[in-house]
Backbone:
């Protein structure tokens, strides 16, 4: 409504820029960087060192383009100065399945999606 309503409707009983208040920061959900436990990385430092020496050779999965898991991966790459190949999925379940199968190297995901696999030793939280 902020951008388009003024062009779609001749008269409005409200001014979106003045009358709406943006809601943000309502919740905070942590992301965990996880790798398949068969991979050699024991720490974020190990992973970043490899990624810097081998740009574009690691694949990071996400629950889809624009999701929190995707944005977490993009933020990490930006801050660490590395580049991964992004592999978007249609949800966390297929992303985690392919991580477990070794089709991708890592993902950023929520504890509810990864904790059981971390506790079982199939994924490693960095």
Residues:
């Amino acid at each position: 409504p902020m951008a388009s309503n003024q062009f779609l409707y001749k008269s409005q009983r409200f001014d979106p820029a003045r009358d709406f208040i943006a809601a943000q920061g309502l919740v905070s959900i942590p992301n965990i960087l996880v790798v398949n436990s068969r991979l050699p990385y024991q720490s974020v430092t190990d992973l970043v060192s490899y990624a810097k020496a081998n740009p574009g050779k690691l694949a990071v999965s996400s629950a889809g383009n624009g999701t929190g898991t995707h944005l977490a991966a993009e933020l990490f790459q930006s801050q660490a100065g590395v580049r991964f190949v992004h592999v978007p999925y249609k949800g966390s379940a297929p992303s985690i399945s392919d991580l477990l199968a070794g089709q991708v190297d890592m993902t950023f995901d929520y504890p509810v999606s990864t904790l059981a696999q971390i506790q079982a030793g199939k994924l490693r939280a960095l």
Summary: The two ends are 41 Å apart (CA to CA). The chain has one domain: 30-125. The chain has a mean pLDDT of 91.
